[in-house]
Inverse folding.
């Protein structure tokens, strides 16, 4: 199973094993990692799962759809080129070692 | 002495109370007892991605089993609480296996049950409901054999199921008793839009029609008879005519209940006995935005936000519930998002283009924005939700220009 490391705004790191097919959001929430709120449970309807993907991994994900793109324009924390909604990022074997910075604000 | 907090009902709200109690530093025992055979899971995908085969069972889980262990939250599935009583020192809940669970404080998060049909033929095989994972699995198990599906009720769940069924090219008829779809929650512009959208996508939508009975053969449903005598063929009938709150247990503790059976709570999510909180679909609560009267809010947002507050109240907090209600529904390629409560609006502004499946409707009362319905228009939805949360306004005359981004015209 691929490992993913979450880095909280305060620098705390949490490394978890992810189930292939679960999203980066689900992996965090189901394990109780704080900071990814995910109010809508992954329906791309709330923008409270905003993360900054480590630059080394950003190109490994599919391009975002127009909905996610719009949502990211309305996030609470600043949108950066590596911004994504973590509910739209599915875990795969080849993403082992993935590093995810959690956005400092979700509301 | 260890303090015991017992949570009856292991759904969205029950799980959240447990998690929040720990986050707020509660060190006593926390037990969730739920009658379903699954740990706490999310329901929204049941009529959407899960039914469509785009999400599996495991993905519905709200937390991994290990999370509960790590947080010392005891989850007891497959047991139904059948009685509740207070003794001199503590209360006791008894489950249907005879297990006794003591508690010093109690949370009732028993949710709601779908309203059942009562007409002739209502108990035929193939008459289905959609509340839990078992319901969704039953529909999925029959899916391949269904050619004609009739959906009773043009609310969110019925229309979501209809949309998935159309995606699989089934013959879909929606029978709705009111004169417009989702009439309890969205405005007429949005209702009319969805009527056309579903029709365009191949569903037959019948408004202001009531069914009189269900026809069957060998115990299995074969058709739905309407008041006008027409019979619509059906291999399956999916009933989505609203829910009834499961407030029965409250009577055993003498708690106040509303006419519809819901448990009455105050702005702290406390019932008429301050040792007992209730929240989520089972609660009848004061308007969460300071409006008049009491409301029912059947949504993930309310279950979660009210549960967070209920946890604080259990620990002696006096915070008041204030939250902007919001909700979403996925129907085919249309994402409908709503924020605020539109009851009593006196003005509306339509933005964007209905023909392009991307628009929003803003609702106003006395010149102030109170709600939004948005279709594939996340930016408008988010802007209004933010403004409502901050108690701000988005003036109608400025919003009328669709080219203007709402977030640039927010005022106090
Ligand atoms: C198909 C479907 C789609 C939905 N889609 C959306 C959506 O898109 N967006 C949205 O915001 N909301 C949606 N909702 C609504 C949302 O899921 C509910 O508002 C939410 O689940 C309410 O949480 P709750 O904890 O109050 O109740 P529930 O989640 O229903 O949990 C209550 C639990 O208590 C258990 N229980 C009841 N009585 C007892 C007893 N005596 N002993 C033990 N256990 C008991 C029940 O079995 C149940 O497991 C949807 C609901 C359904 C059914
Ligand atoms: S969880 Fe809501 S948008 Fe990602």
């Amino acid at each position: 199973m691929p490992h993913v490391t979450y880095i909280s705004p305060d620098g705390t790191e949490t490394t978890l094993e992810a189930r292939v097919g679960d999203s980066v959001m689900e992996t965090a929430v189901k394990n109780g990692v704080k900071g990814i709120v995910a109010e809508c449970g992954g329906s791309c309807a709330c923008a409270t799962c905003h993360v900054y993907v480590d630059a080394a991994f950003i190109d490994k994900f599919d391009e975002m759809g127009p909905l996610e793109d719009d949502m990211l324009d309305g996030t609470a924390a600043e949108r950066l080129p590596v911004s994504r909604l973590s509910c739209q990022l599915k875990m795969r074997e080849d993403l082992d070692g993935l590093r995810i910075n959690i956005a400092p604000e979700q509301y | 002495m260890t303090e015991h907090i017992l949570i009856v009902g292991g759904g969205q709200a029950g799980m959240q109370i447990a998690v929040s109690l720990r986050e707020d530093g509660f060190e006593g025992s926390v037990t969730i007892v739920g009658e379903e055979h699954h740990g706490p899971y999310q329901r929204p995908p049941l009529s959407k991605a899960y039914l469509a085969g785009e999400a599996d069972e495991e993905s519905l889980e709200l937390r991994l089993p290990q999370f509960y262990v790590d947080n010392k939250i005891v989850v007891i599935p497959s047991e139904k609480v059948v009685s509740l009583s207070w003794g001199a020192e503590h209360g006791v809940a008894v489950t249907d296996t005879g297990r006794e669970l003591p508690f010093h404080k109690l949370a009732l998060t028993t949710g709601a049950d779908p309203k059942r049909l009562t007409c002739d033929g209502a108990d035929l095989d193939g008459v289905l409901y959609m509340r839990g994972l078992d319901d969704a699995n039953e529909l999925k198990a029959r899916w391949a054999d269904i050619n004609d599906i009739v959906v009773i009720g043009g609310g969110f769940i019925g229309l979501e199921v209809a949309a998935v069924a159309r995606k699989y090219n089934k013959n879909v008829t929606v029978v709705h008793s009111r004169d417009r779809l989702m009439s309890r929650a969205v405005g007429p512009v949005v209702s009319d839009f969805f009527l056309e959208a579903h029709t365009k996508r191949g569903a037959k939508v019948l408004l202001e029609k009531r069914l009189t009975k269900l026809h069957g053969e060998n115990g299995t449903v074969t058709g739905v008879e309407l008041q006008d005598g027409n019979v619509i063929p059906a291999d399956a009938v999916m009933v989505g005519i609203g829910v009834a709150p499961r407030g029965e247990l409250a009577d055993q503790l003498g708690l106040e209940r509303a006419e519809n059976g819901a448990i009455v709570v105050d702005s702290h999510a406390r019932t008429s006995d301050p040792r007992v909180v209730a929240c989520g679909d089972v609660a009848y609560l004061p308007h969460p935005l300071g409006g008049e009267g009491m409301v029912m809010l059947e949504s993930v947002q309310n279950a979660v936000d009210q549960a967070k507050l209920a946890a604080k109240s259990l620990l002696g907090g006096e915070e008041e519930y204030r939250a902007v209600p919001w909700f979403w529904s996925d129907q085919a390629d249309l994402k409908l998002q709503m924020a605020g409560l539109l009851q009593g609006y006196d003005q509306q502004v339509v933005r964007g283009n209905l023909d392009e499946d991307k628009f929003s409707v803003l609702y106003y009362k006395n010149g102030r924005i109170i709600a939004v319905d948005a279709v594939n228009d996340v930016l408008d939805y988010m802007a209004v939700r933010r403004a409502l949360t901050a108690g701000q306004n988005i003036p109608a005359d400025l919003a009328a220009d669709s080219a203007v981004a709402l977030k640039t015209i927010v005022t106090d």
Observations:
- Chain A is about 15% helix and 20% strand.
